[in-house]
Amino acid sequence: MKYLIETKRDGGNHVQVLKKHKENHYTLAWTFALKGDSAPIVLAEMYNDDCFVIGNWNGWIRIYSISKKELIFEKNYEGKINTRAQISEDKTKLYVSVGRTMTMEIISLIDFSILKTIELSEYVESQFFTLINEEKIIYYEPDSYDDTHGFYVLNPVSEELKFFPVKYPQWDDLEPFNPVINVQQNVGVMPLTDDIEIKKNEEGVSVFVLKIMVFDLDTFEITNIIPIRELSVEHLGYKENDNEKIAEELKTKEDEEEYQEAVAKLINDHIYSIVFDDNGSLWISFRGGIVRNVTLEGTLSPLLATESLNDNDSGVFKHPYFHSRIYKVKEDTIILREHSETYKMPYSKEELKSTQKVIAKKVMSTKPYEIIISTEEEQVIEEHKMVVVDVSDVDLELSYIAALDEIIKLTTAIDDIRSGHVLQFRVKNSNGVEDDEVFFNKAIQVKGGEERIVKIIENFVAYKDSARLYSDYEVTALAHAMYALADTSEKHIDLAIQYLGAIDFDHDVFNRESLLQLLKEKYHKEYGDQIVEKLSQLEFGESWVEDYTENCLV
Question: Strands 114-119 and 129-133, how do they pair?
Answer without folding.
Answer: unpaired
